[in-house]
Amino acid sequence: MPALQDPRLEIIAQRLADGATQAEAYAAAYGSKSLTSAKTAASRLLSNVNKRATVDNRVAEVLGERDSARMTALQTEAKKTGLNKAWVLEQLRTNYERAMQAEPVIREGQPTGEFRYEGSVANKALELIGKELGMFIERRETGQPGDFAHMTDDEIDRYIRERRHLLAAPGNGVAGARDGGTRASAKGANGGSQPH
């Protein structure tokens, strides 16, 4: 997309895309010498919904154009050098095999010794290969700490049962998915909950 018609808004958008603060972007566009006054003026200017939307859309476009150009450059460089995913995976495999002493060191057709065991190197190679092949699922906690602190054990069990279909998705590896998502193991002998 072409630059914005208002050159000052274009400068603001470009600077924001570069990572500048609103005050820094405003100062660059309007020649403000004081960042304090620029902060106030930028806030006032960008409180206008239309101008804010125009700048935000332009920032997104600029960042998208930059990403596209970066990807094109990487693809061109990869073609020149012959690098691709298959090559990277093969190099990771080679690192794994060397780290696991899977191959002797051979120079000029003669073995010169063995690679010594490097478990961390082997594990990292396997991790990277697994990530590339989609073998691992990134899991992270959602919500805020303490979201369930106000709930009783029965309320938590009901919450889990109601969302059991999410837990039972094939290959998600979430514990408790097969038993209906109950927390029976967390209950004491008397049926009450144990401290967590």
What this model shows, in words?
The protein has 196 residues and is mostly helical. It folds into three domains: 7-79; 85-132, no CATH class; 142-196, no CATH class. It has helices at residues 7-17, 22-30, 35-46, 49-81, 85-99, 119-132, 153-162, 164-167; strands at 104-107, 110-114.
Coarse morphology: flat
Estimate the strand proportion.
under 5%
Quick check: average pLDDT? 77
Tell me the span between the first and last alpha carbons. 55 Å
Structural class: mainly alpha
Key attributes of the depicted protein:
single chain; mainly alpha; 3 domains; two-stranded antiparallel sheet; 2 strands; flat; disordered C terminus
How do the strands and helices of this protein lay out in sequence?
Layout: H1 7-17, H2 22-30, H3 35-46, H4 49-81, H5 85-99, E1 104-107, E2 110-114, H6 119-132, H7 153-162, H8 164-167
Antiparallel strand pairs: 1-2
Helix pairs in contact: 1-2, 1-4, 2-3, 5-6
What is shown here, in short?
The protein is 55% helix and 5% strand. With 196 residues, it is mainly α.
